[in-house]
Amino acid sequence: MKRSILSKEGVGLTATVIQKRELYLARVVTDLPTLVYIKKGTKSLKQNGLEFDIHAGEAVAIAGGQAFDVINRPFEGEFEAVWIAFHPNVIRNYKPIEQNLEEIDPAFKLSSLGSGFAEAFRLAAESITTNQNISEQISIHRVTEILIWLGEYGKKFKVPSPTNVSQKVRTLLSANPAKDWSAIEISELLEMSEATLRRKLAAELVSFSEILIDVRMSFALSLLQATDRNIGEIAKQAGYESASRFAVRFRDRFGYSPTVLRRETSRDRNGTILDRART
Question: Which residue numbers delimit the HTH araC/xylS-type domain (predicted)?
Answer without folding.
Answer: 167-264
